[in-house]
Task: inverse folding
């Protein structure tokens, strides 16, 4: 039986909540001061706490802090008459599970308590993932065991030790830059620089000087000689990202460099040499750009000596479980979150998304989910909420086409748009309030 502690100095609230929660089958403790609340918290270790912010002896936010410091799995729901931004932010930052405004809407309390109970149960029933030992330098690890990724690994192995030009093509977020880095890390010259030049990020007029450098006085404002990226790359790798965006004029100069391995700085005459390895990436089909006259054919052939085509994530869904574990570990390390469990159904939900943004979108989804996570388990609900917010058509997963799914989705959207005003929503949806309430319960909908 779950234990719940209610801390509030308003006795009418204590009584109402006590009765209500008792009827829900919870063991209820109450306290009307912060100090008493803390004593009961330590003695009883309740799974759930409902905590008022304005208490006679202490600030509820400080009580929250002391409770969180005990590092128990308890979920703490704050209630307050304050509507301001600061208090809400502080409470959530200090680890509050939820934040409910007074006057209390008992439905909202129930939803929040039910959700806490559910999460505690999922946490209890979900086994922790095996901890993964993070190897040094593994920030640049390419995860995948699908046939398609194994082919990519083979190609990387073939090409990494030589200095031939490599062209990596693929949609955005498929791991082109990561692949380029890993090729570099496995090259005989891995201690030399890896220099990124994003051909789409610099204004045209500066591109040439960024890439090749310029001499003092080459143009207005050029008050000193500057080294370009080619020079910075030295004997290492020059990664030319979004190569299709390179203006034709500079494509010509780059071609000259690739043919002769010599170039001059802007405004200079001195011939400079470079032995850097060039890896270029493009998210559009370069051959198509050549046909349209937007990309120099000679340069295209120079670059594509060795081509790697990164598969979109939708073509290698079998990699998703591994990627999810990898990102959980990575993000836990980076953000200090402690999510070590994945609820059943999370992976299945991820498999129904189309992933237009590929691995980057998957990584961002997990980051967002972990930031919103109030426990150790990555919840299906959290993923669902994020993917519904950034919808792309369901690709697989017939469940997504079921009437129940559509109904659930529609009710959720309607409620969100109306700030969860249920009577308004019921009118718009053309159902009675009790019907709406029962559907909210059935689909376990809640206000985000
Ligand atoms: N196979 C993979 N394994 C692990 N992380 C990946 C993989 N593919 C991409 N990523 C991660 O996804 C994000 C986007 O990758 P990136 O190389 O920048 O893609 P692109 O250059 O194709 O847009 C990066 O954070 C990268 O580390
Ligand atoms: Mg990129």
Result:
């Amino acid at each position: 039986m779950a234990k719940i502690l209610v801390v509030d100095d308003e006795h009418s609230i204590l009584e109402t909540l006590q009765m209500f929660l008792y009827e829900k089958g919870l063991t209820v403790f109450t306290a009307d001061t912060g100090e008493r609340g803390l004593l009961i918290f330590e003695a009883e270790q309740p799974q759930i706490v409902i905590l008022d912010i304005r208490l006679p002896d202490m600030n509820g936010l400080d009580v929250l802090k002391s409770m969180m410091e005990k590092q128990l799995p308890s979920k703490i729901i704050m209630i307050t008459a304050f509507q301001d931004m600061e208090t809400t932010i502080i409470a959530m930052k200090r680890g509050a599970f939820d934040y409910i405004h007074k006057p209390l809407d008992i439905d909202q309390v129930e939803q929040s308590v039910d959700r806490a109970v559910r999460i505690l149960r999922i946490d209890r029933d979900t086994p922790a993932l095996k901890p993964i030992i993070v190897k040094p330098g593994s920030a640049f690890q390419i995860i995948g065991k699908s046939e398609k990724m194994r082919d990519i690994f083979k190609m990387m192995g073939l090409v990494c030790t030589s200095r031939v030009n490599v062209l990596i093509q693929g949609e955005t977020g498929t791991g082109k830059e990561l692949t380029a880095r890993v090729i570099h890390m496995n090259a005989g010259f891995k201690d030399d620089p890896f220099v990124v030049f994003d051909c789409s990020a610099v204004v045209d007029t500066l591109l040439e000087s960024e890439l090749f450098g310029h001499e003092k006085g080459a143009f207005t404002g050029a008050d000193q000689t500057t080294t370009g990226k080619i020079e910075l790359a030295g004997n290492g790798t020059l990664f030319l990202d979004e190569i299709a965006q390179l203006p034709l004029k500079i494509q010509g100069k780059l071609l000259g460099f690739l043919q002769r391995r010599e170039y001059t700085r802007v405004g200079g005459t001195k011939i400079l040499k470079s032995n850097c390895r060039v890896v270029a990436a493009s998210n559009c089909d370069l051959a198509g750009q050549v046909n349209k006259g937007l990309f120099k054919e000679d340069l295209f052939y120079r670059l594509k000596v060795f081509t790697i085509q990164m598969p979109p994530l939708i073509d290698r869904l079998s990699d998703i479980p591994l990627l999810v574990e990898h990102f959980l570990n990575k993000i836990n390390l980076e953000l200090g979150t402690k999510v070590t469990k994945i609820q059943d159904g999370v992976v299945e939900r991820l498999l129904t998304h189309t992933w237009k943004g590929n691995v980057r979108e998957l990584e961002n989804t997990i980051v967002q989910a972990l930031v919103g996570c109030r426990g150790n388990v990555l919840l299906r609900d959290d993923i669902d909420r994020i993917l519904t917010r950034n919808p792309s058509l369901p690709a697989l997963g017939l469940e997504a086409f079921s009437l129940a799914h559509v109904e659930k989705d529609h009710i959720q959207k309607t409620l969100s748009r109306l700030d969860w005003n249920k009577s308004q929503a019921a009118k718009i949806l053309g159902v009675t309030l009790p019907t709406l309430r029962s559907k909210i319960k059935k689909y376990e909908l809640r206000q985000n």
